[in-house]
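Fill-in record for Ribonuclease P protein component.
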Amino acid sequence: MRSERLLHSEDYRTTIAKRCRSDDQLFTVFAARRPTGGARLGITVSRRVSTKAVRRNRLKRRVRESFRYHKQPLAGLDLVVIARQEANETERLQVDRSLFGHWIRVREKCGK
């Protein structure tokens, strides 16, 4: 849904500038609290991750799907997910586990 996405580069910059983050081998997730509304998501998958657009888009779909399942506890946060090259070469289950761990850490660190 459009209201659940970070749409402008200023939104990305603001979220990253807050420096509330979670890192692992597959992703870096930045988070920033927002005063009202549900969680919003921005995803960055560069060509360094994969030169194939199909693979980059598949990875973005996985991130969006994980976010959709876990967005309720993340309400009130803006999130930026930056994929690393290892995420492209990793099985789906590991990607899901990694993202789930990020959602928990971000909620604890940056949430309410």
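KEY FINDING: Residues 6 and 42 are 5 Å apart (CA to CA).
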